[in-house]
Amino acid sequence: MIPERPSSANLSNNTPLLGATPNQSIDNNLGNPAPRDGAFEPSKGRKRWLILGIVLGIVIIVFLAVFLPVYFVVIRKSPEAQSSTSGGSSDASASGTADAPRPSATAVLTTGGDGSIITLRNGTTFTYRNSFGGFWIHDPEDPFNSNARPNDYTPPLNTSWRWGVDRVYGVNLGGWLVLEPFISPEIFQRYPGVRDEFSLAQAMAADTASGGLTQIEEHYETFITEVDIAEIAGAGLNFLRIPIGFWAIETWDGEPYLAKTSWTYFLRAVEWARKYGLRVLLDLHAAPGSQNGLNHSGKLGTINFLAGNMGIANAERTLDNLRSFTQFISQPEYRDVVVAIGLVNEPLASQIGLDPLHSFNLRAYDIIRSVTGFGEGNGPYIAVQDGLQNLGRWDGILPGGDRVIMDGHAYFAFGDVNPSPMVALAEDGLPGGTWPAQACRAWGTEFNESRTNIGPTVSGEFSGAPNDCGLFIRSVGVDSFHPQCAEYNDWENYNTTMKAGLQNWIMASFDAFGDFFFWTWKIGPSQAGRVEAPLWSYKLGLDNGWIPRDPRDSVGKCAAVGINTPVEGTFAAFRTGAVPSPTIDAAYSAQYPWPPTSIPSADVPVSLLPTFTNTAAAMTLPVPTYTSAPASATANLDGWFNDNDSTGGIVTVAGCPYPNVYTATFATVPTAPCTGP
């Protein structure tokens, strides 16, 4: 447990802003203590005037000390703002196929905390619940206001994040913009036999009677809403990791995904995150060609990223995607909210190899930093995924690199069957059995050593599941053989001891990682009408008692079960942006050239593999329009931060043959390079 914290004051929309800041309440009930025996007591008239004078003086002091900072710093005053009583949603809409959030015609600046009333874009309302001192801010005329904070232990968005001091308490928005069968089972169950988003999109496109691919946009529209983001902030969390696929930017021939649409919804989430004070890590979850052959990469099957005959070409497309994302999120309007970018989610290092991945990561680093520049505040941190390897295998990565984070994913669910009961007592005398200590032993040391040897390290994914029980957890049509699945899947009937055991082991996981993103925020119901992968849903666990109400209660859990793994918090200056002109070690750069000297599963040497040329227009992501903002607020918003980056976008070389992105078999094996200008 952590030391007692000050209670959080409430600010509802019925509370005048004149009296309190969003995280402060004013008590105007001034008592009149009785005089001590023998003390001088003024006459009733003098006493009354004295009390009135004291009260008036206090009111004036409070007004000046509290209201004026709010007036000039937190909000931009207008007559409408002073009379506002409810919070509208953002009025941003992206240029694309779907509208981003829009307020009602009467929406005005509002700010509030626990108990305030939020008005959604459809006109309905809900009550914001946040017992952690967080407050939201929404100003249609100042759409990039970044003063909100999710709680009183996380810095506001407009204040620098301090690695090693501030803790990442995060969740993923998994299964939203990159669909996964176990997260959104019902949408896959509509089309028996589909196992990934590739085949789902094909089936939907052929089913025009049911709406075709618009069914995917309906999923975007409904699966994650503003209420979810508000609940995440209200749960004591402070970070979102948002997976997105390459098709948010564009698709090429043979790629059936819904193109250029999910970006609109990503921007919608960013606006909600800004409103509630949450920071965002943009995670490129699905790369062209598939980086791991798993269903969450877009297509189940073979790896064609840094592997196979299209391995270099697909990697070049990925680098171009990262460039476009970076150009957008590095704009001053977005860099306080989207503070990190994940290069590629879970590239399968066991098949690709570490050397090609080192070459790719270095090339991506160079491209991103050529856009952003160096040092604190200049574009996002760069998160490098562990490739489903022990973090220790990445020691020495990007030596001298500016603002690099390691992202480790850790699951017991896919390991050996372990039937250890969750209801048995753990070392601290609470339920949880062997699981809390196992989490601390397995992950605490590994993640702390990564902090020492590499720099800031987060767990970008883990869950509350100790096994692979649940619908579609491994894949569509693949069931678990774990002997306890009936018990674990029956979440509606968990008893108090089971819930306490799960919470104890989940808190041990929190403590072992130190900085984390739970996978995932929510699981949708199956066609049976119930959640069938319960221990992967933060929201379900929070609502039903096996996720802690306060994530900070996890601090010290590993020590309580006899495993001391204090979180390392001191990092090299270049890792936190304190070096203005950092350089990558020259020997490292020479060791890992681009393109890599070899990749697996290719029929010819790298020099003969297909590549692209940079003669197309650069791919600039569309920006929202803000209907209520003055032109000056958005004058410089164009989706492209660094105009000095004038390299063209990638395109095929005329006359060169290109195998299929996913089944890269040469019709004619090349014997000479085919390159363009």
TrEMBL record:
Q: Where is this region: Disordered?
A: 1-39, 81-109
Q: Which residues form the signal peptide?
A: none
Family matches, as PROSITE patterns: GLYCOSYL_HYDROL_F5
Gene Ontology terms describing biological process: cell wall organization; glucan catabolic process
May I have one GO cellular component term?
extracellular region
Matching entries from Gene3D superfamilies are given as: Glycosidases (3.20.20.80)
Superkingdom of origin: Eukaryota
Which UniProt keywords are listed? Cell membrane, Cell wall biogenesis/degradation, Glycoprotein, Glycosidase, Hydrolase, Membrane, Signal-anchor, Transmembrane, Transmembrane helix
Q: Which Pfam families match?
A: Cellulase
Q: What is its main location?
A: membrane
Coiled coil as UniProt keyword:
no
Q: What SUPFAM superfamilies does the annotation carry?
A: (Trans)glycosidases
One GO molecular function term of this record is: glucan exo-1,3-beta-glucosidase activity
Q: Say if the entry is tagged with keyword Transmembrane helix.
A: yes
Q: Where in the cell is it found?
A: Cell membrane
Describe the reaction catalysed, as an equation.
Successive hydrolysis of beta-D-glucose units from the non-reducing ends of (1->3)-beta-D-glucans, releasing alpha-glucose
UniProt record similarity statement: Belongs to the glycosyl hydrolase 5 (cellulase A) family.
| Name of this chain's protein | glucan 1,3-beta-glucosidase
Which organism is this protein's natural source?
Answer: Candolleomyces eurysporus
Q: What is the lineage of its organism?
A: Eukaryota, Fungi, Dikarya, Basidiomycota, Agaricomycotina
